[in-house]
Protein backbone atom coordinates (compact mmCIF):
# COMPACT_ATOMS: atom_id res chain seq x y z
CA UNK A 1 0.00 0.00 0.00
CA UNK A 2 1.50 3.43 -0.92
CA UNK A 3 2.82 5.30 2.12
CA UNK A 4 1.91 8.92 1.52
CA UNK A 5 4.16 11.51 3.16
CA UNK A 6 4.13 15.28 3.39
CA UNK A 7 7.45 16.59 2.11
CA UNK A 8 8.95 20.06 2.33
CA UNK A 9 10.60 21.56 -0.75
CA UNK A 10 12.71 24.70 -0.91
CA UNK A 11 13.15 26.45 -4.26
CA UNK A 12 16.23 28.41 -5.32
CA UNK A 13 14.45 31.71 -4.69
CA UNK A 14 13.96 30.69 -1.04
CA UNK A 15 10.24 29.90 -1.31
CA UNK A 16 9.10 26.93 0.77
CA UNK A 17 6.52 24.50 -0.54
CA UNK A 18 4.92 21.28 0.71
CA UNK A 19 3.87 18.37 -1.48
CA UNK A 20 2.16 15.06 -0.84
CA UNK A 21 3.87 12.07 -2.41
CA UNK A 22 4.78 8.44 -2.04
CA UNK A 23 8.53 7.66 -1.70
CA UNK A 24 10.28 8.13 -5.07
CA UNK A 25 6.95 9.09 -6.62
CA UNK A 26 5.50 12.26 -8.11
CA UNK A 27 3.50 14.71 -5.96
CA UNK A 28 -0.25 14.11 -5.81
CA UNK A 29 -1.58 16.59 -8.37
CA UNK A 30 -4.94 17.43 -6.80
CA UNK A 31 -3.33 18.06 -3.41
CA UNK A 32 -0.74 20.35 -5.00
CA UNK A 33 -3.54 22.36 -6.61
CA UNK A 34 -5.40 22.59 -3.29
CA UNK A 35 -2.29 23.65 -1.32
CA UNK A 36 -1.61 26.34 -3.92
CA UNK A 37 -4.83 28.07 -2.86
CA UNK A 38 -3.28 28.55 0.60
CA UNK A 39 -0.03 29.85 -0.85
CA UNK A 40 -1.90 32.42 -2.96
CA UNK A 41 -3.65 33.65 0.19
CA UNK A 42 -0.27 34.21 1.83
CA UNK A 43 -0.61 31.49 4.47
CA UNK A 44 2.58 30.63 6.38
CA UNK A 45 4.71 27.74 5.12
CA UNK A 46 4.26 25.83 8.38
CA UNK A 47 0.48 26.18 8.14
CA UNK A 48 0.52 24.83 4.59
CA UNK A 49 2.69 21.94 5.69
CA UNK A 50 0.24 21.08 8.47
CA UNK A 51 -2.53 20.98 5.85
CA UNK A 52 -0.35 18.67 3.75
CA UNK A 53 0.26 16.38 6.74
CA UNK A 54 -3.50 16.23 7.35
CA UNK A 55 -4.05 15.19 3.73
CA UNK A 56 -1.29 12.59 4.02
CA UNK A 57 -3.35 11.07 6.81
CA UNK A 58 -6.45 11.18 4.60
CA UNK A 59 -4.73 9.41 1.70
CA UNK A 60 -3.21 6.79 4.00
CA UNK A 61 -6.62 5.96 5.40
CA UNK A 62 -8.17 5.84 1.93
CA UNK A 63 -5.33 3.57 0.84
CA UNK A 64 -5.93 1.25 3.80
CA UNK A 65 -9.59 1.06 2.77
CA UNK A 66 -8.56 0.50 -0.89
CA UNK A 67 -10.45 3.59 -2.02
CA UNK A 68 -9.25 5.55 -5.04
CA UNK A 69 -10.71 8.98 -4.39
CA UNK A 70 -10.55 10.31 -7.95
CA UNK A 71 -12.04 7.14 -9.45
CA UNK A 72 -14.84 7.19 -6.89
CA UNK A 73 -15.69 10.84 -7.62
CA UNK A 74 -15.43 10.28 -11.38
CA UNK A 75 -18.27 7.79 -10.99
CA UNK A 76 -20.38 10.49 -9.39
CA UNK A 77 -20.14 8.85 -5.94
CA UNK A 78 -18.78 10.34 -2.71
CA UNK A 79 -17.26 8.66 0.32
CA UNK A 80 -19.69 6.61 2.38
CA UNK A 81 -20.69 7.37 5.96
CA UNK A 82 -18.68 4.35 7.16
CA UNK A 83 -15.54 5.58 5.38
CA UNK A 84 -15.92 9.09 6.74
CA UNK A 85 -16.53 7.83 10.27
CA UNK A 86 -13.39 5.70 10.06
CA UNK A 87 -11.46 8.76 8.92
CA UNK A 88 -12.88 10.89 11.73
CA UNK A 89 -11.66 8.26 14.19
CA UNK A 90 -8.17 8.11 12.64
CA UNK A 91 -7.52 11.86 12.97
CA UNK A 92 -7.69 11.56 16.76
CA UNK A 93 -4.25 9.93 16.88
CA UNK A 94 -0.70 10.82 16.03
CA UNK A 95 0.13 9.97 12.45
CA UNK A 96 3.23 7.92 13.25
CA UNK A 97 1.11 5.63 15.43
CA UNK A 98 -1.50 5.12 12.73
CA UNK A 99 0.92 3.78 10.15
CA UNK A 100 3.18 1.82 12.51
CA UNK A 101 1.88 -1.60 11.41
CA UNK A 102 2.47 -0.79 7.76
CA UNK A 103 6.02 0.37 8.45
CA UNK A 104 6.80 -2.79 10.42
CA UNK A 105 5.53 -5.04 7.65
CA UNK A 106 7.57 -3.21 5.01
CA UNK A 107 10.80 -4.23 6.71
CA UNK A 108 10.29 -7.89 5.97
CA UNK A 109 8.11 -10.06 3.82
CA UNK A 110 7.98 -12.66 6.61
CA UNK A 111 5.61 -12.09 9.54
CA UNK A 112 5.62 -14.47 12.48
CA UNK A 113 1.97 -15.49 12.85
CA UNK A 114 2.29 -16.00 16.62
CA UNK A 115 3.34 -12.36 17.08
CA UNK A 116 0.81 -10.78 14.74
CA UNK A 117 -2.15 -10.57 17.11
CA UNK A 118 -0.02 -9.48 20.04
CA UNK A 119 1.67 -6.76 18.04
CA UNK A 120 -1.56 -5.38 16.66
CA UNK A 121 -3.19 -5.29 20.09
CA UNK A 122 -0.13 -3.55 21.49
CA UNK A 123 -0.04 -0.93 18.74
CA UNK A 124 -3.75 -0.20 19.08
CA UNK A 125 -3.36 0.28 22.81
CA UNK A 126 -0.24 2.43 22.45
CA UNK A 127 -1.70 4.93 20.00
CA UNK A 128 -1.41 8.39 21.47
CA UNK A 129 -4.18 10.95 20.91
CA UNK A 130 -3.56 14.45 19.63
CA UNK A 131 -5.02 17.46 21.42
CA UNK A 132 -8.56 18.58 20.48
CA UNK A 133 -7.24 21.65 18.67
CA UNK A 134 -5.08 19.55 16.35
CA UNK A 135 -7.92 17.11 15.78
CA UNK A 136 -10.31 19.94 14.93
CA UNK A 137 -7.84 21.51 12.49
CA UNK A 138 -7.22 18.19 10.75
CA UNK A 139 -10.93 17.60 10.29
CA UNK A 140 -11.55 21.10 8.94
CA UNK A 141 -8.73 20.90 6.39
CA UNK A 142 -9.75 17.40 5.28
CA UNK A 143 -13.39 18.48 4.92
CA UNK A 144 -12.36 21.56 2.93
CA UNK A 145 -10.19 19.42 0.64
CA UNK A 146 -12.94 16.85 0.08
CA UNK A 147 -15.34 19.66 -0.83
CA UNK A 148 -12.72 21.16 -3.15
CA UNK A 149 -11.85 17.91 -4.93
CA UNK A 150 -15.51 16.95 -5.25
CA UNK A 151 -16.24 20.22 -7.07
CA UNK A 152 -12.98 19.88 -9.02
CA UNK A 153 -13.89 16.45 -10.40
CA UNK A 154 -17.60 17.24 -10.58
CA UNK A 155 -16.94 20.07 -13.06
CA UNK A 156 -15.89 17.42 -15.62
CA UNK A 157 -19.01 15.25 -15.20
CA UNK A 158 -22.31 15.33 -17.09
CA UNK A 159 -24.81 17.76 -15.61
CA UNK A 160 -27.04 15.16 -13.94
CA UNK A 161 -24.13 13.21 -12.44
CA UNK A 162 -22.56 16.47 -11.27
CA UNK A 163 -25.77 17.47 -9.49
CA UNK A 164 -26.03 14.08 -7.76
CA UNK A 165 -22.40 14.20 -6.62
CA UNK A 166 -22.86 17.75 -5.29
CA UNK A 167 -25.94 16.81 -3.27
CA UNK A 168 -24.31 13.65 -1.88
CA UNK A 169 -21.04 15.37 -0.95
CA UNK A 170 -22.77 18.34 0.72
CA UNK A 171 -24.87 16.02 2.87
CA UNK A 172 -21.95 13.76 3.76
CA UNK A 173 -19.60 16.64 4.62
CA UNK A 174 -22.22 18.30 6.80
CA UNK A 175 -22.33 15.10 8.84
CA UNK A 176 -18.53 14.77 8.74
CA UNK A 177 -18.02 18.26 10.14
CA UNK A 178 -20.15 17.30 13.12
CA UNK A 179 -17.11 15.28 14.29
CA UNK A 180 -15.09 18.49 14.74
CA UNK A 181 -14.59 18.75 18.53
CA UNK A 182 -15.31 22.04 20.25
CA UNK A 183 -12.06 23.57 21.50
CA UNK A 184 -12.96 24.85 24.94
CA UNK A 185 -11.58 28.19 26.06
CA UNK A 186 -12.87 27.64 29.59
CA UNK A 187 -10.46 24.98 30.80
CA UNK A 188 -7.77 27.27 32.17
CA UNK A 189 -6.70 25.52 35.37
CA UNK A 190 -3.86 23.71 33.59
CA UNK A 191 -3.17 26.43 31.02
CA UNK A 192 0.45 27.32 30.42
CA UNK A 193 1.98 30.03 32.59
CA UNK A 194 5.46 31.47 33.05
CA UNK A 195 8.17 30.78 35.58
CA UNK A 196 8.01 32.36 39.01
CA UNK A 197 10.71 34.91 39.81
CA UNK A 198 12.56 32.33 41.91
CA UNK A 199 12.43 29.75 39.11
CA UNK A 200 13.61 32.32 36.59
CA UNK A 201 16.60 33.21 38.78
CA UNK A 202 17.37 29.52 39.24
CA UNK A 203 17.34 28.92 35.48
CA UNK A 204 19.55 31.92 34.67
CA UNK A 205 22.01 30.84 37.36
CA UNK A 206 22.10 27.28 36.02
CA UNK A 207 22.83 28.23 32.40
CA UNK A 208 25.48 30.83 33.22
CA UNK A 209 28.73 29.79 31.49
CA UNK A 210 30.64 29.89 34.77
CA UNK A 211 28.09 27.84 36.71
CA UNK A 212 29.45 24.53 38.04
CA UNK A 213 25.96 23.09 37.43
CA UNK A 214 25.98 24.02 33.74
CA UNK A 215 25.04 20.90 31.79
CA UNK A 216 26.93 21.67 28.58
CA UNK A 217 30.60 20.72 28.42
CA UNK A 218 31.74 22.72 25.39
CA UNK A 219 32.48 26.41 25.76
CA UNK A 220 30.58 27.46 22.62
CA UNK A 221 27.45 25.56 23.64
CA UNK A 222 27.56 27.08 27.10
CA UNK A 223 27.91 30.62 25.79
CA UNK A 224 25.28 30.27 23.07
CA UNK A 225 22.65 28.52 25.20
CA UNK A 226 23.09 31.07 27.97
CA UNK A 227 22.54 33.82 25.40
CA UNK A 228 19.42 32.06 24.09
CA UNK A 229 17.84 31.92 27.55
CA UNK A 230 18.84 35.52 28.38
CA UNK A 231 17.46 36.95 25.12
CA UNK A 232 14.17 35.05 25.38
CA UNK A 233 13.66 36.22 28.96
CA UNK A 234 14.81 39.78 28.23
CA UNK A 235 12.66 40.39 25.16
CA UNK A 236 9.74 37.95 25.27
CA UNK A 237 10.32 37.14 21.61
CA UNK A 238 9.32 33.78 20.16
CA UNK A 239 12.01 31.19 19.53
CA UNK A 240 11.30 31.47 15.79
CA UNK A 241 11.97 35.20 15.97
CA UNK A 242 15.24 34.59 17.80
CA UNK A 243 16.31 31.98 15.22
CA UNK A 244 15.49 34.45 12.43
CA UNK A 245 17.45 37.28 14.05
CA UNK A 246 20.30 38.42 11.78
CA UNK A 247 23.45 40.33 12.66
CA UNK A 248 22.23 43.15 10.43
CA UNK A 249 19.16 43.49 12.65
CA UNK A 250 21.33 44.74 15.51
CA UNK A 251 21.90 48.49 15.75
CA UNK A 252 25.66 49.09 15.40
CA UNK A 253 25.90 51.86 18.02
CA UNK A 254 22.75 51.65 20.14
CA UNK A 255 21.39 48.86 22.36
CA UNK A 256 18.57 48.00 19.96
CA UNK A 257 17.57 45.19 17.65
CA UNK A 258 14.81 44.70 15.10
CA UNK A 259 12.44 41.75 14.71
CA UNK A 260 11.63 41.44 11.00
CA UNK A 261 9.35 39.10 9.07
CA UNK A 262 11.28 37.32 6.32
CA UNK A 263 9.01 34.78 4.66
CA UNK A 264 10.91 32.55 2.22
CA UNK A 265 14.20 34.42 2.73
CA UNK A 266 16.69 33.17 0.13
CA UNK A 267 19.56 33.49 2.62
CA UNK A 268 17.89 31.07 5.04
CA UNK A 269 18.96 27.59 3.95
CA UNK A 270 17.09 25.70 6.68
CA UNK A 271 14.49 23.21 5.39
CA UNK A 272 12.07 24.53 8.02
CA UNK A 273 12.52 28.28 8.06
CA UNK A 274 12.28 30.20 11.32
CA UNK A 275 9.10 32.28 11.25
CA UNK A 276 8.10 35.60 12.76
CA UNK A 277 4.36 35.49 13.39
CA UNK A 278 3.97 39.02 14.71
CA UNK A 279 4.54 42.50 13.25
CA UNK A 280 7.99 43.95 12.66
CA UNK A 281 9.21 45.89 15.66
CA UNK A 282 12.23 47.37 17.41
CA UNK A 283 13.30 46.21 20.85
CA UNK A 284 15.64 48.09 23.15
CA UNK A 285 18.05 46.17 25.39
CA UNK A 286 20.09 47.20 28.37
CA UNK A 287 23.67 48.14 27.47
CA UNK A 288 24.94 45.11 29.41
CA UNK A 289 22.80 42.60 27.51
CA UNK A 290 23.70 44.27 24.21
CA UNK A 291 27.37 44.05 25.11
CA UNK A 292 26.99 40.34 25.90
CA UNK A 293 25.28 39.84 22.54
CA UNK A 294 28.02 41.61 20.56
CA UNK A 295 30.71 39.80 22.55
CA UNK A 296 29.16 36.48 21.54
CA UNK A 297 29.09 37.51 17.87
CA UNK A 298 32.58 39.04 17.69
CA UNK A 299 34.48 36.63 19.93
CA UNK A 300 32.65 33.34 20.53
CA UNK A 301 30.71 32.89 17.28
CA UNK A 302 33.54 34.34 15.15
CA UNK A 303 35.81 31.44 16.08
CA UNK A 304 33.60 29.13 13.98
CA UNK A 305 34.77 29.89 10.44
CA UNK A 306 31.68 28.52 8.72
CA UNK A 307 29.48 30.84 10.78
CA UNK A 308 31.10 33.98 9.34
CA UNK A 309 29.13 33.56 6.11
CA UNK A 310 25.82 32.95 7.94
CA UNK A 311 23.65 36.04 8.62
CA UNK A 312 21.72 34.53 11.55
CA UNK A 313 22.97 35.36 15.04
CA UNK A 314 22.26 31.97 16.61
CA UNK A 315 24.19 29.14 14.95
CA UNK A 316 25.15 25.54 15.63
CA UNK A 317 28.62 24.34 16.53
CA UNK A 318 29.14 23.61 12.82
CA UNK A 319 28.36 27.18 11.85
CA UNK A 320 24.90 26.62 10.39
CA UNK A 321 21.79 28.57 11.38
CA UNK A 322 20.28 26.79 14.38
CA UNK A 323 17.03 24.87 13.84
CA UNK A 324 13.85 24.84 15.92
CA UNK A 325 14.45 21.18 16.75
CA UNK A 326 17.79 22.17 18.30
CA UNK A 327 16.04 24.76 20.47
CA UNK A 328 13.53 22.12 21.54
CA UNK A 329 16.41 19.78 22.41
CA UNK A 330 18.11 22.47 24.51
CA UNK A 331 14.97 23.02 26.56
CA UNK A 332 14.38 19.28 26.88
CA UNK A 333 17.85 19.07 28.47
CA UNK A 334 17.01 22.01 30.73
CA UNK A 335 13.81 20.28 31.86
CA UNK A 336 15.88 17.32 33.05
CA UNK A 337 18.40 19.61 34.75
CA UNK A 338 15.67 21.65 36.49
CA UNK A 339 13.30 19.15 38.11
CA UNK A 340 10.46 20.40 40.25
CA UNK A 341 9.53 23.48 38.24
CA UNK A 342 5.91 24.56 38.42
CA UNK A 343 5.63 24.38 34.61
CA UNK A 344 7.00 22.14 31.86
CA UNK A 345 9.93 24.23 30.65
CA UNK A 346 9.83 25.13 26.94
CA UNK A 347 11.12 28.05 24.92
CA UNK A 348 7.57 29.46 24.79
CA UNK A 349 7.39 29.49 28.59
CA UNK A 350 10.05 32.22 28.37
CA UNK A 351 7.50 34.37 26.51
CA UNK A 352 4.90 33.77 29.21
CA UNK A 353 7.51 34.62 31.85
CA UNK A 354 8.39 37.93 30.17
CA UNK A 355 4.73 38.95 30.04
CA UNK A 356 4.23 38.19 33.72
CA UNK A 357 7.31 40.22 34.68
CA UNK A 358 5.99 43.02 32.44
CA UNK A 359 2.64 43.02 34.30
CA UNK A 360 4.40 43.17 37.65
CA UNK A 361 6.57 46.08 36.54
CA UNK A 362 3.58 47.93 35.05
CA UNK A 363 1.76 47.60 38.37
CA UNK A 364 4.82 48.80 40.29
CA UNK A 365 5.13 52.03 38.29
CA UNK A 366 1.36 52.56 38.23
CA UNK A 367 0.58 52.22 34.51
CA UNK A 368 -3.10 52.39 33.64
CA UNK A 369 -4.60 49.29 32.02
CA UNK A 370 -4.95 51.05 28.66
CA UNK A 371 -1.35 52.26 28.59
CA UNK A 372 -0.08 48.87 29.74
CA UNK A 373 -1.96 47.10 26.97
CA UNK A 374 -0.62 49.40 24.25
CA UNK A 375 2.93 49.16 25.62
CA UNK A 376 2.78 45.36 25.77
CA UNK A 377 1.29 45.04 22.29
CA UNK A 378 4.05 47.25 20.90
CA UNK A 379 6.81 45.19 22.53
CA UNK A 380 5.32 41.84 21.50
CA UNK A 381 4.49 42.79 17.93
CA UNK A 382 0.70 42.57 18.33
CA UNK A 383 -1.87 44.95 16.88
CA UNK A 384 -2.99 47.89 19.02
CA UNK A 385 -6.33 46.22 19.78
CA UNK A 386 -4.97 42.73 20.31
CA UNK A 387 -6.26 40.75 23.29
CA UNK A 388 -3.38 38.25 23.20
CA UNK A 389 -2.11 39.54 26.55
CA UNK A 390 -4.76 37.49 28.36
CA UNK A 391 -3.07 34.31 27.09
CA UNK A 392 0.29 35.30 28.57
CA UNK A 393 -0.67 36.88 31.90
CA UNK A 394 -2.70 34.12 33.56
CA UNK A 395 -0.49 33.82 36.65
CA UNK A 396 -0.47 37.57 37.33
CA UNK A 397 -4.22 37.87 36.69
CA UNK A 398 -4.95 34.91 38.95
CA UNK A 399 -2.77 36.42 41.68
CA UNK A 400 -4.64 39.74 41.56
CA UNK A 401 -7.94 37.87 41.58
CA UNK A 402 -6.93 35.90 44.68
CA UNK A 403 -5.86 39.10 46.46
CA UNK A 404 -9.18 40.79 45.72
CA UNK A 405 -11.13 37.70 46.74
CA UNK A 406 -9.29 37.52 50.07
CA UNK A 407 -10.00 41.22 50.66
CA UNK A 408 -13.69 40.51 50.25
CA UNK A 409 -13.47 37.56 52.63
CA UNK A 410 -11.86 39.70 55.33
CA UNK A 411 -15.23 41.42 55.85
CA UNK A 412 -16.79 38.04 56.53
CA UNK A 413 -13.94 37.22 58.93
CA UNK A 414 -14.82 40.25 61.00
CA UNK A 415 -18.46 39.19 61.10
CA UNK A 416 -17.57 35.59 62.09
CA UNK A 417 -15.29 36.81 64.90
CA UNK A 418 -18.06 39.06 66.16
CA UNK A 419 -20.55 36.17 66.18
CA UNK A 420 -18.24 34.16 68.41
TrEMBL record:
Residues 377-420 are annotated as: Disordered. Keywords: DNA integration, DNA recombination, DNA-binding. Signal peptide: none annotated. Pfam families: Phage_integrase (PF00589). The keyword DNA-binding applies. Residues 190-406 form the Tyr recombinase domain. It comes from the Bacteria. Residues 377-388 have a biased composition (Polar residues). Residues 400-420 have a biased composition (Basic and acidic residues). Belongs to the 'phage' integrase family. PANTHER family: INTEGRASE_RECOMBINASE PROTEIN MJ0367-RELATED, PHAGE INTEGRASE-RELATED. This is Tyrosine recombinase XerC. It comes from Paraburkholderia gardini. The gene is xerC_3.
Amino acid sequence: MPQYVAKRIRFRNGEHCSVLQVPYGLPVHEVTVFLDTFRKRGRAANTIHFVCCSLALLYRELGNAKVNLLDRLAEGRFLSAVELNRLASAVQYRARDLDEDEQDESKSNVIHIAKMGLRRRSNAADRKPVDPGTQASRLRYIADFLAFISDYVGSTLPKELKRELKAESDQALTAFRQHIPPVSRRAKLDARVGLSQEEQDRLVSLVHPDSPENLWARGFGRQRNWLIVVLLLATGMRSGELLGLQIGDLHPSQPKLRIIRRADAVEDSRPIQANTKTYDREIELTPIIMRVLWNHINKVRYQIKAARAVPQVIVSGKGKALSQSSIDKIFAQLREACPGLSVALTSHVMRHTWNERFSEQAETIGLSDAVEQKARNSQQGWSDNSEMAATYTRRHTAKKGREMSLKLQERLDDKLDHDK
